[in-house]
Specification:
Elements lengths: L1 H14 L2 E3 L2 E3 L30 H29 L13
Antiparallel strand pairs: 1-2
Length: 97
């Protein structure tokens, strides 16, 4: 979904003219990252491996963990606010019959 939005943004930015030192230019305003969905050619030859991004998993964790923590803090504070104003108060169910 984000890739589609990026491609649409790149296409929209590329279709507008930009003013530059030489006047009005019609080049793309956003650099598009090349990607491919095929793994072989028409003749059946296997395409070479794409370049590997170093520290890919480390980059994922450095983004996911802080934002997951921030999201938990926001939801915890919002739940406390709702309970404080008696908008949503969880009921204490006693299952000890």
């Amino acid at each position: 979904m984000a890739g589609l939005a990026g491609r649409l943004l790149a296409a929209a930015a590329g279709s507008r003219g930009r003013a530059g030192p030489g006047g009005l230019r019609s080049g793309p305003a956003v650099t598009v990252v090349p990607s491919r969905s095929e793994t072989f050619t028409r003749s059946g030859a296997i395409l070479p491996k794409p370049p590997k991004m170093p520290f890919g998993l480390l980059r994922v964790f450095t983004v996911v963990i802080p934002f997951l923590y921030i999201g938990t803090q926001i939801s915890k504070n919002f739940a406390a606010l709702l309970e404080e104003h008696d908008i949503f108060v969880p009921e204490d169910d006693d299952d000890d019959d």
